[in-house]
Known about the structure:
The protein is α/β, with parallel strands linked by helices and 311 residues long. It is 32% helix and 27% strand. It contains ten helices and 14 strands. The protein has a six-stranded parallel beta sheet with strand order 1-4-3-2-5-6. Helix 7 (165-173) runs antiparallel to helix 8 (177-184).
Amino acid sequence: xxxxxxxxxxxxxxxxxxxxxxxxxxxxxxxxxxxxxxxxxxxxxxxxxxxxxxxxxxxxxxxxxxxxxxxxxxxxxxxxxxxxxxxxxxxxxxxxxxxxxxxxxxxxxxxxxxxxxxxxxxxxxxxxxxxxxxxxxxxxxxxxxxxxxxxxxxxxxxxxxxxxxxxxxxxxxxxxxxxxxxxxxxxxxxxxxxxxxxxxxxxxxxxxxxxxxxxxxxxxxxxxxxxxxxxxxxxxxxxxxxxxxxxxxxxxxxxxxxxxxxxxxxxxxxxxxxxxxxxxxxxxxxxxxxxxxxxxxxxxxxxxxxxxxxx
Length: 311
């Protein structure tokens, strides 16, 4: 997959099959659109193009609102789209100036003149242009004038739950990683660098790798203990992850710590990718470190049993 960090870097294609949107999460609903894109491209010997916006529009238009957390960094999104088999990813730098572009200006300048769109596939709730004025109905009405066809993909359900990035975010904020994973079609993941902690885990027999996430907008699941798998240096390990303030020892800052089973390497400075499979329990305050250690023994046993189903 080729990644273009500005539309000016893109060369117009003979037969471009295009979709556009933020694609946060690249969830099962998005994957339905991507699969249709590839199907049409195969029929017409065309190439697939995803047009996305970065930063997320809400981060630009409402910087005072710090409540929005995203399921993916741009790099994670690009990797997921690559794995999905997309040919081209065009990143449009989203600015306040760009937000004032009308829907028709966006269509003509980006979809028609820059990309050469021959077929546009969009989700059922997709809006575009200034104040989200553009709609499927407008696109369909004007498509012949623009020189392309447009197709709308209906909302997708899993177990009677309509898939959306918002629902996935809400599930993760409640610690419901099972629902989030169901809608994503894969385990939710975090990636970050291993940094030094206070080594308290070692004192009670559960050494942990402290993870630093260097982006403020990445969504961290609710506080608690989770059964996870983690990738390090091309290998996958079972483990459990703690997210919280460490109330038993009077912690003041949220930490993300993963205890990898059967793992004894020093990996400070290395990257870990952590995949969430199930929440074991909420964060709790224990009377002392021994009580905490006894609970961690139970957590590890439960995590090991659960993870055998996944890895």
